[in-house]
Amino acid sequence: MSRLRVAVVGAGPAGIYASDILMKEAEGTHEVSIDLFERLPAPYGLVRYGVAPDHPRIKGVVNALRDVLDTGRIRIFGNVNFGTDITLEDLQQRYNIVIFSTGAFYDADLDIPGIEAEGSYGAADFVNWYDGYPEASRTWALDQSSVAVIGNGNVALDVARVLAKHADDMLPTEIPANVYEGLKNTAVTDVHVFGRRGPLQVKFTPLELRELGEVPGVDIVVAEEDFDRDPEADEAAKKNKQILVISRILGKWRGEQEALEAPRRIHLHFYARPAEVVTEDGRVSALRVVRTEPTADGGVADTDETRDIPVGQVYRAVGYFGSPLEDVPFDERRGVIPNDAGAVVDGNGERVQGLFATGWIKRGPVGLIGATKSDARETVEQILGDESNWWQPTIDDEQELFELLAERQVRFTDLEGWRRLDAHEQQLGEAEGRERIKVVERDEMINVSRDETGEAK
């Protein structure tokens, strides 16, 4: 039985699922050892730091990831940054292959006038704040009564829901104390969500939409003029079961517009293409949108009508974008590692020995957990299908890695450390009658994980 040593860079769902599938697929043919390298002190990636904390379905995903790690067959090296703490050359010396699963954490650009004004933000920055991302700001100015969210995907609805939600309704979640205080002191009363296409051409899921209407003390405002503009296309869209559910939810809200009386509102604007962030003295004062209309080919086209919606902040939720990695090919236009079914390729389309990719850094920021699993399986097939593409490690001592990181003074965390931090967060929550309170500061996360006290060493 041949040996296969694997380094996985990125300990989110993509990296953990790829590790799990690889171990199972190689059983009986290869003796597999896998090391997960994660830039943050804790695993789970966007499940921990990219999904709104009031989503109950997170627990199921986290439990599945925990089950994989609890097998004890995967080593974790947290708080280890690829490119500085450990390099591609280091990994080539110690492993047969490297799988990159670093995801996409940053906002895609939106090229419209005024987008860089004061009060204009990327949605990812706001998500990082309310999810307690270690490198995010600890404060967020929620000092405007009316705000805009650009986008019609799940992240846009997450951002809109959190902006509109009353702080006490977030307490059952794991939000940190600073986030609770920020939401408690918010001035936001109206959140406007803009999409350039029609209500049945949205990108969000029925679950996200339904949750939007279940927020206590918040009404959903829709405009009758946005509906029934292309009846034939709408009927065709309803053949998709998800779109049919979305149509029913929106239909229910259309019938409730006369009885709206909640203190906060989420306004859904369709057929509204954001064209400019209007500014006054350098900061956001309105969002200018161009009204669009459906076209025969199923798209939309601009009309001559523009509208200015007064808002004090703008959040763009138009997608995520991947980041380049040291010494690894990168597609600057798409924000991904170029690859052939998961096998990394260079600028000439030739496969690069020993390098593979999975998850959003492989395919772009689209698809949910199901797509991530199938994505990982495709990459694993490429790995096991061609052993000639593997490196031959020159360092065969698995314990030597601990010495290397110690020599470089990397305060890395491991699986036991994550379990310690996990238990600590649950204890913090228990003291306040909550399930968990997330630790935010990186040094505190490391100290708890490493069972160290006092100042960071």
From TrEMBL:
Signal peptide: none annotated. It catalyses: 2 reduced [2Fe-2S]-[ferredoxin] + NADP(+) + H(+) = 2 oxidized [2Fe-2S]-[ferredoxin] + NADPH. Keywords: FAD, Flavoprotein, NADP, Oxidoreductase. Residues 5-169 form the FAD/NAD(P)-binding domain. Its cofactor is FAD. InterPro entries: FAD/NAD-bd_sf (IPR036188), FAD/NAD-binding_dom (IPR023753), Ferredox_Rdtase (IPR055275), Ferredox_Rdtase_adrenod (IPR021163). Pfam families: Pyr_redox_2. It is an enzyme of class 1 (oxidoreductase). Its EC number is 1.18.1.2. Belongs to the ferredoxin--NADP reductase type 1 family. This is ferredoxin--NADP(+) reductase. The lineage of its organism: Bacteria, Bacillati, Actinomycetota, Actinomycetes, Micrococcales.
